[in-house]
Amino acid sequence: xxxxxxxxxxxxxxxxxxxxxxxxxxxxxxxxxxxxxxxxxxxxxxxxxxxxxxxxxxxxxxxxxxxxxxxxxxxxxxxxxxxxxxxxxxxxxxxxxxxxxxxxxxxxxxxxxxxxxxxxxxxxxxxxxxxxxxxxxxxxxxxxxxxxxxxxxxxxxxxxxxxxxxxxxxxxxxxxxxxxxxxxxxxxxxxxxxxxxxxxxxxxxxxxx
Length: 209
Prior knowledge:
Blueprint: E1 9-14, E2 26-31, E3 34-40, H1 43-48, E4 50-55, E5 75-80, E6 83-87, E7 89-91, E8 104-109, E9 115-119, E10 125-129, E11 137-142, E12 147-155, E13 160-169, E14 172-177, E15 190-196, E16 199-205
C-alpha cells in the first residue's frame, strides 16, 4: 500500500550496533501476513544505533485490510540477499509486543537469533495498466509456477463484480477488464479491487466512457 497511512504506531529498534543487522537490510513490520510498515537500514541508522519505523493502522474504509489491527502481535522480518528471516523481538521494559494506535514500542532484535531462514519465494505478481483507466485495463499476471488461478473484481464494499478467470494456467497470463460486471452492464466510476489468488491490486475506473 502507498500513502501516509493512519493512526500510526512507531516501532523503535534500538542497540542496532550489537544486533548483527547490516546496512542494506530491509525490515518489515507485519500483522500476520500483512506488511504494515517497512524501512531499509542505512549507515546513519547503524551509527546512531536505532531506527524508527512507522506502522499504519487499518482505516476500516475498504473491504481489504490496509493496516494493523490494534491488539494483534507485532512481527518483524528481515530481508537480505533474497532470503527472509523472522526476527526474535525483545521488548524494552514497559513496552508490549502488540499493535496500538498512536503509541510507540521499543524493541531489541538480534540477527543471530533469527529463525525461519528460507529462500524468498517469488509470489504472484500483478501489473495493471493503464491505471486509472476508462475503456479497459490490461492485467499481466506472473505466477511462481503453473497452478490454479482465480481472478475476480470487487467493489469497495467487497461485493463481487466480475469473475475474469478461473482455471489452471501457466506461469504467465494476460487478461483484460472492460469495466463491466458479469451481466455486461457498465460499472460506475470509482475504485475497485482486483484479486488474483491471494494478491490484491487497487484499480480505478474513470468517468470518460
